[in-house]
Amino acid sequence: MHELTQPLLRVQNLHCAYGARAVVRDISLDLWPGEVLAIVGESGSGKTTLLNALAARHAPTSGTVAFAMRGSGLQDIYALSEAQARLLARTDWGFVHQHAADGLRMNVSAGANVAERLMALGQRHYGNLRAQAGDWLARVEIDPSRIDDRPDTFSGGMRQRLQIARNLITQPRLVFMDEPTSGLDVSVQARLLDMLRMLTRQMNLAAVIVTHDLAVARLLAQRMLVMQGGVAVETGLTDQVLDDPQHPYTQLLVSSVLPP
Amino acid sequence: MDQPEASSAAPVRDPHINFAYLDERTKRMIRRAILKAVAIPGYQVPFGSREMPLPYGWGTGGIQVTASIIGPDDVLKVIDQGSDDTVNAVNIRRFFQRTTGVEVTTDTTAASIIQTRHRIPETPLQAGQILVYQVPVPEPMQHLEPREVETRKLHALQEYGLMHVNLFEDLAHYGHIATTYDYPVLVNGRYIMSPSPIPKFDNPKMHQNPALQLFGAGREKRIYAVPPFTDVESLGFEDHPFEVQHWDHPCEICGARDSFLDEVLTDDQGSRMFVCSDSDYCAKQQALHTPPNTLPPETV
Questions:
Q1: d(CA B87, CA B84)
Q2: B240 touches chain A (CB under 8 A)
Q3: Inter-chain CB proximity B168 and A111 less than 8 Å
Q4: CB within 8 Å: A115 and B171
Q5: Least Cα separation, residue B172 to chain A (angstroms)
């Protein structure tokens, strides 16, 4: 099986600059199917820029990002036509925004939000669409009786879960998440993380999660990448990095977490 | 300054105004946009919409299209909500009488150009006729995607999932598709198009119509077209297909059962009657049959 011999996402020597200011410098990484990678670092370290470059949302200055397309193997995502890239972004990929309002249509019902990707793929049977939307609402622990309510009547945690359902309904293989739990209170965060962990396991879903919260990284990610000033100062297994940090910045980061 | 003629007298051609009001170069520019629109059915072609002596919302797009295609031998019919004698229709007809002096008619079959607001005539159109629509909002996805850069991209890439989100919302809230006018259509299997605010009752008439259909949006500066004998399909779901309105009553003036009916309040006691919205069709039906005027007006 090529899935075992080939990574899902291969990033080589990625540089991103805004004008003369380099924001991401020389990042290389491989992401394997079903693997969750956390990108941690302080504010302004280039985490979100890196995520956008990986998700074909912001072209890098140099370097390549290749994704294992179904059927055709690793392909440079910035060499795809716009139509192909947009199709990829709404079938095999998901993108969970920090603010749910950026990723949802706030003026249409939860059911339509969840089913939108299926309709974009040409499904035209209302009964089936609605059944699948209800099924996904249940999977992200939203009461299916709220299927006709608009997301602006939902709490912050529910909106975030709705956004996840909307992204996962096409059974993507890779999801990008930008601070998915920030702005939620701790108990809601815990439930969301629990749910994400379960879904990534069940669906063999690979994910790249940007976070400044080491607890999120520890719970979800198998591997992490620590960024400072646009450079990956340390990468490794999550437990290894958190328990035995090598780089002075990682040591500082780990030691600045308040004990509960 | 002379007073305008009484409304009963036909206005005469004003020789101080260029034929059909617009200057010749403007007409050529609009004709080029029309040719492009006909070549790409359903595609919205931008054009340099001119300031007209009527305000936006009164059909400036349709008037500019008509002005660019009309010639001295044309016979013009203007309708507003199906009727030849409502304010918008009367004023646009007078405008073209004064600026072109062409023959005008209320007879659908006698007209070579029909400018319409919100209806397609009940009498089937013939090859050679041109139907000009007045369009307020040309972009069918504007409601869900306000960014025009984005909607143009969606059209280019044929990403039309959004249109079904709209219908899905109707079904979720009302149990049926509650969109009754400006019902989106797929033209020639390629572009999603707003048919302008015609009732969805008229949508099937657009399909494979022998006449040329031109759409002008003056404020939004867009022209689009459905060439003769082109497929026009109204959107729907497999389990909730597109349907047109039906009435339990015939027209109470002419007795027609196949036309689009307007509900007209007749007094302040709640009496109402259902009558054809197409005034020309209603008059012809009356001439054909003995009018079943004996029906008592329905009281609720």
A1: 9
A2: yes
A3: yes
A4: no
A5: 6
Contact A15, A62 (CB under 8 A): yes
Probe site for chain A from B141, B237, B243 (most A CB atoms < 10 A): B237
Q: How far away is chain A from the Cα of B251, in angstroms, using its nearest Cα? A: 35
C-alpha distances (whole Å) from B62 to each of A167, B30, B118 are: 43, 11, 12
**pTM reported for the whole predicted model:** 0.87
Query: What pLDDT, in 10s, does the model give residues A16-48?
Result: 999 999 999 999 999 999 999 999 988 889 999
Asked if B157 and A108 come within 8 Å (Cβ–Cβ), the reply is: no
Express each pLDDT in A105-121 by its tens digit: 999 999 999 999 999 99
CB pair distance less than 8 Å for B144 and A108: yes
Residue B5 pLDDT class (50, 70, 90 cuts): very low
Task: Note which residues in 213-252 of chain A have CB less than 8 A from chain B.
Answer: none
- In chain A, % of residues over pLDDT 90: 78
Q: Tell which CATH architecture fits domain A9-92+172-255.
A: 3-Layer(aba) Sandwich (3.40)
**Ranges for all domains in chain A classified under CATH 3.40.50.300:** 9-92+172-255
Taking the C-alpha atoms of residue B214 and residue B65, their distance in angstroms, rounded to an integer, is: 8
Task: Determine the Cα–Cα distance for residues B217 and B138; give it in Å rounded to an integer.
Answer: 6
What value of ipTM does the predicted structure carry? 0.84
